[in-house]
Specification:
The radius of gyration is 20 Å and the shape is globular. It is of the alpha/beta class. Helix 5 (146-153) crosses helix 6 (155-164) and helix 13 (298-312) runs parallel beside helix 14 (332-345). It has a seven-stranded parallel β-sheet, sandwiched between helices. It is 41% helix and 12% strand. It has one domain (7-345): TIM Barrel. The chain has helices at residues 7-15, 32-39, 46-55, 102-107, 146-153, 155-164, 166-188, 212-218, 220-233, 249-254, 270-277, 289-294, 298-312, 332-345, and strands at 60-65, 76-79, 88-91, 137-143, 193-199, 203-204, 207-208, 237-240, 259-261, 282-284, 318-319.
Length: 352
Amino acid sequence: MTGGLDFGRLEQALLLRGEPDRVPLAEVTIDQAIKDAFVGRPVRDVESEVAFWSSAGYDYVPVKIGLHTFDDPRRKRENVVGEEDYQRREWLDELKGPISTLEEFESFPWPEEVGCVDDVTGVSLDEISEYLPPGVKVIGMVAKLFNAVWELMGFETFCLALYDNPELVSRLFERVCSTHLGVFERMSRYACVGAMWIVDDIAYGGGLMVSPEALRRYIFPWYRRMGEICRERGLPFIYHSDGDLRGVLDDIIGCGFNALHPIEPPVMDIVRLKEAVGDKLCLMGNIGLDFPLSRGTPHDVEQEVKERLKQVAPGGGYCVSSSNSVAHWVPLENFNAMREAVFKYGRYPISI
């Protein structure tokens, strides 16, 4: 690792779109199996979670919180590797969820409050500070606002309700997003938190999941309120959505986001994006999850990282990341090749 751990490296890239000592690393999620293999032991508590991210060269520890663990018997499940929960893949019924009427909305067992504890890793903001190495901060990740609403309804039911039952849609967005706004505000007050990150897919490879008008009506106003909190507190504000976001880039910038992740190839050309909005957004990602991270060799990964550093890093405002997340099927040697290529070639000035 070069340059040691320093959250200031991320701040310079995210807020100023500048050139720190080297290009930062950044991921939304790294699968538990990858973390275990990297460390060589189970990563199951706050201390070991912090140890993984720090030893892997990340200048932050992510804590992801949100309404994304509803227990719905319609969830489809399969065990991928073993019997433990973190190795179980789940997906939702895309047709109909637990809420399709106002009566079901009223009777739904809503949580009274979402606490500042990552409900996947168990990392708590109240105890994490004592384990953070010097220079490392937390990035608070609030997950699933738009996603939580459609998942509660089922995507088909949600799309129909945009036209047939806008009252239900409005009430769901108000309930879900006001809850997230509350936890966002509380997280942003912790001294250990250095940035806030919204994780909320609104697009796929073919374009936006719903019309720009629906997003402007229902979700972007909530993002703007969160952006105002970050601006008041001087915190970088990051947005994650897969897919083709070109139809709402101006809206994303208008919500106050400082950075965009993960710039999914091939639908998002990161070089053109840098030319178009590089003066407004730090760009994060674009190292292909399919190839080279999953199906390539360590050499393939190194070559793609070098290419992105050469194309996008000069002038600043770039962080290396996968084009989605580091999934359990990514070979450990490929994950390491991505990291090590940044340490080897990512120092400023870039001279590859």
